[in-house]
Design a protein that fits this description.
Number of domains: 3
CATH superfamily of the largest domain: P-loop containing nucleotide triphosphate hydrolases
CATH topology of the largest domain: Rossmann fold
Strand order of the largest sheet: 2-1-3-5-6-4
CATH architecture of the largest domain: 3-Layer(aba) Sandwich
């Protein structure tokens, strides 16, 4: 009989699981969106079965499973079910996935005070993982519990933090459940969210130079453990790293910033040809959605209104990964845009001599070289803050594109 292999849950449109399991050799992995009344019938079907379980059924499936692994019972959640000769066995691979991600990031929980944000099912997994990794004290922060977001000062001495809430998850990003500045002694931050690759919480950890990790490696590691249970086989641990890096690279946008007329749009076209990626020009996007060119909007409605429109456009554009994104020269003047671009992108500044910049049709670049110099002096520190890498556009545009694509392939790491 044909074997049923896949993921069961209620809303699975943004799941990365099929791609991950296919990369592990399981080509038949499918998504099964089930309503609550369909769950029992699906699990009782006669075909051989091996499935992952996600929200909202990780607790509900206990009533249908014949044998529960001790780790899953302790955590109170099942995320993997395997039918063995007509009996359903329930496991939890999230815990080992979370532990892998924590250790991979070099976060040392031994003897530390750990705060866990959220009290749902994943919070129980995080508690079990923190305990297993030797945490001295574990405090769960919830909206209404004894330890809540209104009395964070009670736990200001926390040394490690794990976010298990959905705050900051696509599409509601960048956002964060709290500011890490509430915990001045933090030594590590773990966010189980994997989409976007950098949540608001992780970007703040980056800013504060606190070691941190997102949820992608956890997702891949738990999938590897599940795959081993599905087919009763052992997979090489190296798969976790290779798949994690490929997924991260494929999901990361290449974002081009720089002075107006620096060649971003044409460089972006060359990178698109090299990479096979889709090119999205923010100014063209605005034209398509408003019917007006950016320069016309600035002249008729003012720069502030244009910047508002531009930020909303960037938010929508950057909600998708794997693209080449070219931005307007002034997007860096809005601080909010940094998080929007950085959460899904590696940001490249295309830097060109002022005397070589084009100004035609650019109202904010008017005034010749003197006007450009004044504009540059305002924007240069902003470009420096936004950019991950600066690439000189002092040769051909194709050469500049080649430098960016080479850097992206060699240095995009998760």
């Amino acid at each position: 009989m044909r074997r049923v292999v896949g993921l069961i849950g209620r809303k699975l449109g943004h799941s990365w699981s099929p791609q991950i399991h296919r990369m592990m050799g399981c080509r038949g992995y499918k998504l099964y969106e089930l309503e609550p009344e369909e769950l029992e019938g699906f699990l009782r079907r006669p075909e051989p079965m091996a499935v992952n379980v996600t929200i909202p059924y990780k607790q509900e499936v206990f009533k249908y499973v014949d044998v529960v692994d001790p780790a899953a019972r302790d955590i109170g959640a099942i995320n993997t079910i395997v039918n063995k000769k007509g009996r359903l066995f329930g496991y939890n691979t999230d815990k080992c996935g979370l532990e892998y991600a924590i250790l991979r990031a070099g976060l040392d929980f031994s003897g530390k005070k750990v705060v866990i944000l959220g009290s749902g099912g994943t919070s129980h997994t995080a508690t079990a993982a923190a305990r297993s990794l030797g945490a001295r004290e574990i405090v769960v922060i919830s909206r209404n519990g004894e330890n809540n977001y209104g009395n964070l000062e009670k736990n200001a001495d926390a040394q490690m933090l794990i976010n298990t809430t959905p705050v900051g998850m696509f599409p509601n990003c960048p956002a964060a459940p709290l500011s890490l500045r509430s915990f001045p002694k933090l030594q590590g931050v773990m966010d189980v969210i994997f989409n976007p690759l950098r949540t608001g919480l992780l970007m703040e950890a980056e800013e504060l130079r606190i070691p941190h990790a997102g949820g992608l490696a956890m997702l891949v590691a738990q999938a590897k453990a599940a795959e081993e249970l599905f087919f009763d086989k052992t997979l090489d641990d190296g798969l976790i790293e290779s798949i994690t890096q490929k997924l991260a690279r494929d999901a990361t946008n290449i974002v081009l910033i720089g002075m107006p007329g620096s060649g971003k749009s044409t460089v972006g076209k060359f990178i698109a040809q090299l990479s096979g990626r889709k090119l999205v020009d923010a100014d063209r996007y605005i034209l398509a959605h408003t019917g007006k060119r950016p320069g016309d909007i600035i002249l008729s409605r003012g720069e502030a209104e244009f910047r508002r429109i531009e930020t909303e456009a960037l938010r929508d554009i950057c909600s998708r990964g794997g693209q080449i994104i070219t931005t307007g020269g002034g997007c860096v003047t809005v601080p909010e845009n940094y998080g929007i671009l950085h959460e899904t992108g590696r940001i490249y500044r295309v830097d060109r001599e002022l005397s070589s910049l084009t100004t035609r049709g650019r109202p904010l670049s008017a005034g010749g070289l003197q006007g450009l110099q004044a504009l540059f002096e305002v924007r240069d520190p902003l470009y420096r803050r936004f950019a991950d890498v600066t690439v000189k556009n002092d040769g051909t545009l194709a050469e500049c594109a080649g430098k960016i694509w080479s850097d992206f392939c060699e240095n995009t790491r998760y």
